[in-house]
Amino acid sequence: MRILVVEDDAVLAAALTRALQQAAYAVDLVEDGAQAEGALAAGDYDLVLLDLALPRLDGLEVLKRLRARGSHVPVLVLTARDTLQDRVAGLDLGADDYLTKPFDLPEFEARVRALLRRANYTAGTSLTHGKLRFDSAGRRLFWEDRPIDLSMRELAVIELLLSRQGRVVSKEQMLDHLFGWGEGAGSNAIEVYVHRVRRKLEPFGIDIRTVRGMGYLLERRGE
C-alpha cells in the first residue's frame, strides 16, 4: 500500500515516514501544498496524511481540490489547529479522520490501520486465488484456513499479484507498490522478494511465473 505524507515539520515527517516504512508501507513525502497537489495529480495512493498549515498552499485547499477531482482516497488530517471550527471545516471538506498534534505514535498507527481497513471493507476485504486467500483488513495470507508466514514486504508482493491476477505485474509496478520515492530500492530487491514469496508458495502448488522482459504472473501449477 502507498501512503502520501504531507508535512513540513522535518522531524515529525521523518518519524512518521520511518514508522510507516517499518510497517512495510510505501511512503512518499512532500513538504508543501503545491508539491502535494502535484503528487496527488500524478499518483494513486491508498491513504493521505495531510497537515493543514502548509507553505505555498493551505492543507484545506489541497483537500478541497482533491475531493473536487472526485477522489475518494482516505485522508487523515494531522494538525496543530485544534479548534472545533477547524475540525468541522476539515471534515466538511472531506477529511476521513482528524488527529491533533502533538499525538502519540501508537494512536497515529491505529488511526492509519483503521482508515485502511475501512477502505478495504468498502472495496472487499479478501483477495483469493483458488484456496489462497489474502485478508486485506488483517494483512495476512492463508491457504484455506492455514496461515502462511510472510514478512510485511512479502505480503505486499502477494497482495499486488492477487489484485492483478491474470495480468502481468512489471517490476516497475512492484517498486511503486513496495517502496516510496526516497528508499532507493532497485529491481534486484524485487527479485529477492519475489523469490522468497515463490519459495513459500511452492508447497501449495502456486507459482509466480517470470514473463521475460515484462514481469511476473501469479498462476496455479499446471495452468
Provide a descriptive summary of the structure in words.
The protein is of the alpha/beta class and 223 residues long. It folds into two domains: 2-122, 3-Layer(aba) Sandwich (Rossmann fold); 125-220, Arc Repressor Mutant, subunit A. The chain is 43% helix and 23% strand. It has eight helices and eleven strands. It has helices spanning 10-22, 33-42, 59-68, 84-92, 105-123, 152-163, 171-178, 187-201, and strands at 2-6, 26-30, 47-51, 75-79, 97-100, 126-129, 132-135, 140-143, 146-148, 206-211, 215-220. It has a five-stranded parallel beta sheet with strand order 2-1-3-4-5, sandwiched between helices. Strands 6-7-8-9 form a four-stranded antiparallel beta sheet, with helices on one face. A hairpin with a 4-residue loop joins β7 (132-135) and β8. The longest helix is centred in the middle third of the chain and has 19 residues, at 105-123. It is elongated, with a radius of gyration of 19 Å. The mean pLDDT is 86.
Task: Please give a quick description of this structure.
The protein is α/β, with parallel strands linked by helices and 223 residues long.
List keywords for this structure.
single chain; 223 residues; alpha/beta; Arc Repressor Mutant, subunit A; 2 domains; five-stranded parallel sheet; four-stranded antiparallel sheet; 43% helix
Structural class call reads alpha/beta
What letter string, H or E per element, gives the SSE order? EHEHEHEHEHEEEEHHHEE
Q: Residue ranges: pLDDT <50 for 5 or more in a row?
A: none
Shape: elongated
CATH architecture of the largest domain, please? Answer: 3-Layer(aba) Sandwich
Helical percentage: 40-55%
